[in-house]
Amino acid sequence: MESGPAIFAGVVFALFGGALLVWTGTRVRRGEPVAQGVSQVASATLAGAAGVLALGLGAYCLTRL
Q1: What predicted TM-score, i.e. pTM, was given to this entire model?
Q2: Contact yes or no for 57/23 (Cβ under 8 A)
Q3: CB-based contacts of 23, cutoff 8 Å, min separation 6
Q4: d(C-alpha 37, C-alpha 15), whole Å
């Protein structure tokens, strides 16, 4: 019973983190801004860190089953 929410949370975090990293990488590769009105380096770094953090949380949730 308790593993259902952990699986759901882990999958959601992993999907979000992966999608954020792919989106950020695509924007940086094309030279487009990741966030409007912010330095491209700072916004790409922050978005990349958030993506890695989300992937890490997803992995943590899925390993705690």
Answers
A1: 0.88
A2: no
A3: 47
A4: 27
